[in-house]
């Protein structure tokens, strides 16, 4: 079973700090499979606390240059914010720098604020998404492409052939079915309820997709005991749930309002406790999903988790959780 870390700083984001290079190397030494970086913009007000979100491709390049084993994924890049050819060049460059460690996570968009500010399309239709994503992937081939009325040969080319693994982020039936039919993986983000995850996975598997290839994100915190986990994590839970209530997640239906109440959130949205309890919760999720083989831990809790707690949790995850699944 694979275990990755996910967040706008690859799961190692901290409150208004950038220790991503140091902590990425730390996660690699602990044996985590991957770091997944979210693309997010304008996250905090001038005087507010919370995570510091970096430019994902630039941050990924720095991680690639200072690590040797850990895979570097995106969860997710927002396709309408990029020209497909430019994106292909940057991903291929990153794959070369990392010696073939890139996982290409992509979304068709859907953030109105981003589209207003950047002057782009808010959300691609399925056909637009397919066309633009295929242009990115075709740019990785050894053939010339006709773009803008010109025949061009695009360089560089990625090490991974035919291209880095594609992970599509969506909870809509048409995109999940399209992903399965086109042999793309899907990726499930952690800020959604388990019933929504299960609905998406059922669509994917019924369309021919393999659940074992789907990274499933959940908030995870490992401590010495169940009691110490709740005591250490509770201040973070209060900050995080307040933040999530203010960003309008319930409007999209991915999570219910009552699930953002701190006690419900801790019990339903978070895998937390001593090592034994966390192992049991992960096994339950594996059974429920019909064979989940890739868990992404949202370990930084939007940057609200103090660095000492983050490091302690990752160490216990590495020593007490990962060996039991390998």
Brief summary:
The protein has 326 residues and is of the alpha/beta class.
Question: Key features?
Answer:
326 residues, alpha/beta, 10-stranded parallel sheet, globular
SSE blueprint:
Blueprint: E1 2-7, H1 20-30, E2 34-37, H2 56-66, E3 71-74, E4 77-78, H3 84-97, E5 102-107, H4 112-118, H5 126-138, E6 145-147, E7 150-152, E8 166-168, H6 173-181, E9 185-186, H7 194-206, E10 216-222, H8 226-246, H9 262-268, E11 270-273, H10 275-288, E12 294-298, H11 307-325
Parallel strand pairs: 1-2, 1-12, 2-3, 3-5, 4-5, 5-8, 8-9, 10-11, 10-12
Antiparallel strand pairs: 6-7
Helix pairs in contact: 1-2, 2-3, 3-5, 6-7, 10-11
Q: Which class of secondary structure composition applies to the elements?
A: alpha/beta
Which runs of at least 5 residues are low in confidence (pLDDT < 50)?
A: none
Cα end-to-end separation: 6 Å
**Biggest sheet details:** 10 strands, parallel
Shape: globular
Query: How many helices?
Result: 11
Strand content: 15-25%
One letter per element, helices H and strands E, the order comes to: EHEHEEHEHHEEEHEHEHHEHEH
User: Count of DSSP E strands?
Assistant: 12
Helical percentage: 40-55%
| Average pLDDT rating | 95
Quaternary class: single chain
């Amino acid at each position: 079973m694979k275990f990755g870390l996910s967040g706008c700083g690859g799961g190692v984001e901290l409150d208004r700090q950038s220790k991503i290079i140091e902590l990425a190397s730390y996660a690699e030494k602990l044996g985590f499979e991957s770091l997944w970086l979210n693309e997010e913009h304008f996250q905090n007000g001038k005087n507010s606390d919370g995570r510091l979100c970096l430019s994902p491709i630039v941050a990924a390049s720095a991680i690639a240059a200072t690590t040797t084993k850990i895979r570097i994924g995106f969860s997710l890049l927002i396709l309408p914010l990029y020209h497909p050819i430019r994106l292909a060049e940057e991903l291929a460059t990153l794959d070369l720098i990392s010696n073939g460690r890139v996982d290409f996570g992509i979304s068709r968009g859907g953030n109105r604020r981003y589209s207003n500010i950047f002057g782009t399309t808010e959300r691609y239709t399925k056909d637009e998404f397919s066309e633009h994503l295929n242009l990115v992937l075709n740019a990785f081939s050894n053939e010339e492409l006709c773009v803008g009325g010109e025949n061009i040969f695009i360089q560089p080319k990625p090490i991974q052939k035919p291209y880095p693994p594609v992970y599509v982020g969506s909870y809509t039936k048409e995109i999940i079915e399209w992903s399965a039919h086109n042999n793309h993986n899907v990726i499930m983000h952690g800020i959604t309820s388990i019933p929504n995850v299960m609905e998406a996975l059922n669509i994917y598997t019924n369309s021919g997709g393999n659940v074992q290839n789907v990274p499933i994100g959940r908030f995870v915190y490992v401590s010495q005991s169940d009691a110490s986990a709740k005591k250490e994590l509770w201040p973070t839970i209060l900050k995080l749930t307040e933040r999530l209530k203010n960003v309008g997640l319930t409007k999209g239906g991915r999570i219910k309002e009552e699930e953002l109440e701190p006690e419900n959130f801790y019990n339903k949205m978070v895998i937390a406790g001593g090592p034994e309890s966390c192992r049991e919760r992960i096994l339950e999720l594996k059974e429920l999903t019909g064979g989940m083989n890739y868990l992404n831990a949202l370990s930084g809790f939007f940057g609200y988790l103090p660095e000492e707690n983050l490091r302690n949790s990752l160490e216990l995850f590495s020593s007490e959780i990962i060996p039991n699944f390998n």
